[in-house]
Amino acid sequence: MDQVQLTRVCKAYGSQRVLDNVDFCANRGEFVVVIGRSGSGKSTLLNLIGGLDEPDSGSVAIGDTRLDRISEAERALFRRTRIGFVFQFFNLIPTLTVAENIELPLALNGLARPAIADRVGALLDELGIGESARRFPEELSGGEQQRVAIARAVAHEPDIVLADEPTGNLDLETAERVLHLLNETCRRRGATLLMATHGREVVGLADRVVTIRHGRIEAATW
Ligand SMILES: Nc1ncnc2c1ncn2[C@@H]1O[C@H](COP(=O)(O)OP(=O)(O)O)[C@@H](O)[C@H]1O
Ligand SMILES: [Mg+2]
Known about the structure:
Layout: E1 4-13, E2 16-26, E3 31-35, H1 42-49, E4 57-62, E5 65-66, H2 72-82, E6 83-86, H3 98-108, H4 113-126, H5 142-154, E7 160-164, H6 172-189, E8 192-197, E9 208-213, E10 216-217
Parallel strand pairs: 3-8, 3-9, 6-7, 7-8
Antiparallel strand pairs: 1-2, 1-4, 4-5, 9-10
Bound molecules: adenosine-5'-diphosphate (ADP) and magnesium ion (MG).
Magnesium ion (MG) binds at residues 42-43, 164-165, 196.
C-alpha cells in the first residue's frame, strides 16, 4: 500500500472549489514534486496530507492513519511525531536561538535533554550551520534560515517532510543549494519528501512530478 493515499478528495473555501476530486499517492521514501501556478491548490493539498486541515469529502490516509477520521487532538499528535514542515518564509521562532528552534519539537515530543543536545549538535553539523547555533534567526541569511528550518523539520525523525515552496524566498543560487540539501537530508533518512513549487528547477532531483491545475491533478509520473 502507498504510504500517502488521497482518494477523491474535495475541499472548498466558501463557494470556491480548491481541490476537486483529487487522487494522489506517494511511496515511502519517494520525492514527489507538486507543480502548479499560484492559487492552484498546492498548499491546500500539502496541508491536508500534514493534518493541518481536513477535507470536505474523500479520504486522506497516511500509512494506517485515516486523517479524515481522527480528532483534531489526534491530528496534532500525528503532526508532531510523523510530519516535518518546511515553509517559504522559514517560520523560525525569532526569540529562540538556532539551536533552540531545533530543540523545541524534540522537547515537545518528550526526548531527554542529553539526547536532544546530541541530536541537535549532529544536525547543525550535517547542515553546515554549527557555527550559528547560538545566533538568532534574524542574524542569518535566508539560505541559512532555511537550513535551520530543514534541521527542525527532520529533528524528530518524521516519516514525511512537506516542503511548501521552500525556495520561494531565496535567490537562484541559494535556492539550488537548499534544494540539494533538503533532498539529501530526506534521502539519507528514507523520509518521503513532498514539495510544492511553481518553478521547474527541482524537477531533476525528484522521483516524480505531479501537475495541479485549478484543484485537479493533471498529469503525472515519469
Ligand atoms: N483558508 C483559506 N480561506 C479561503 N480561501 C483559501 C484558503 N486557503 C486557500 N484559499 C484559496 O484556495 C485557492 C488555492 O490556494 P492554495 O492551496 O494556497 O494554492 P497554492 O498553494 O497553489 O498557491 C486560492 O484561490 C486561495 O485563495
Ligand atoms: Mg501555496
